[in-house]
Specification:
- This protein has 264 residues and is of the alpha+beta class.
- The chain folds into 2 domains: 70 residues, Arc Repressor Mutant, subunit A (Orthogonal Bundle), CATH 1.10.10.10; 180 residues, 2-Layer Sandwich (Beta-Lactamase).
- Helices cover 50% and strands 20% of the residues.
- It is built from 10 helices and 8 strands.
- β7 and β8 form a beta hairpin.
- The longest helix has 31 residues.
- InterPro entries: GAF-like_dom_sf (IPR029016), HTH_MetabolicPath_Reg (IPR050707), Tscrpt_reg_IclR_C (IPR014757), Tscrpt_reg_IclR_N (IPR005471), WH-like_DNA-bd_sf (IPR036388), WH_DNA-bd_sf (IPR036390).
Length: 264
């Protein structure tokens, strides 16, 4: 028998959804965007935003009208960062990738059916792609990090996502047709790293490699982004090799860190 979600659980889900939308961009989001992306009515969104602001989880910027994350969110994030010291572990890999390639390097984490960009390290090449920044979310299978992670999920899990690809990919489905995504997943499994040939934004290319947890599941990804001329021909092989080397190194480091935390 199907259970009807209790009212409290529905409210929590709505609040979490709004916080995720606000947290996508450092500058926050205006009310109209929150209403559109949440699928909730304007009065409901406004009521929840006001309540979250009263608790310090959100702030309302009086200059541009955007809703942004508040001080309580910062405190919670600081506590979580102490428990999951991902920046300490991942930052050295990002710096090496950025220094060796000149491209911008990123560390993303899988959250359910999405990837979330956690860290960015700027490269030295003066022309950059700004598709990715901290807090940006993409559906699995979209962008290089999401493709790298999805390619190494169990086949049944992949097919579950692909079975409703248009609904899963949402606004990215037009640029990521199912047949193209399936081919990208096959190529990623064969090479070990993913290539996104400007599917999110024309002219902005990306490459990614999955980072695995102790159970052997792809839980994170390292990626590089830049303009198309920087990702041509033989250079892709070099970038792919560097990504795989750092992904392996980070897989080992994250596994060792988890083991040390359990022992403590």
């Amino acid at each position: 028998m199907n259970q009807v979600p209790v009212q409290g659980a529905q409210v929590v889900s709505r609040i979490a959804g709004l916080l995720r939308i606000v947290g996508r961009k450092p500058e926050g989001s205006p009310l109209v965007e929150l209403v559109r992306d949440s699928g909730l009515t304007r009065p409901t969104v406004h009521r929840l935003l006001t309540s979250l602001a009263a608790e310090g989880l959100l702030d309302h910027d009086p200059q541009n009208g955007n809703w942004v994350l508040g001080p309580e969110a910062l405190l919670m994030g600081s506590v979580a960062a102490a428990r999951f010291p991902l920046e300490d572990l991942a930052r050295p890999s990002l710096r090496r990738l950025a220094e060796e390639t000149g491209e911008s390097a990123f560390f993303s984490i899988r959250r359910g059916a999405e990837t979330v960009c956690l860290l960015r390290e700027e490269g030295s090449f003066p022309v950059r792609s700004f598709v990715l920044h901290e807090g940006v979310r993409f559906p699995l299978g979209v962008a290089s990090a999401g493709t790298a992670i999805m390619a190494f999920l169990p086949e049944a899990e992949q097919e579950q996502i692909l079975g409703d690809w248009a609904g899963h990919a949402g606004k990215y489905s037009n640029g990521h047709p199912e047949d193209v995504v399936r081919d990208n997943l096959r190529q990623t499994r064969r090479r070990g790293y993913s290539v996104n040939p400007g599917l999110v934004l024309e002219g902005s290319w990306g490459m990614g490699a999955a980072v695995f947890d102790q159970a052997g599941r792809p839980s994170w990804a390292l990626s590089l982004t830049g303009i198309e001329p920087r990702f041509r021909g033989d250079r892709r092989e070099l970038l792919g090799r560097l990504l795989l080397e750092e992904a392996h190194r980070l897989t080992v480091r994250l596994g060792s860190g988890s083991q040390r935390r359990r022992q403590n």
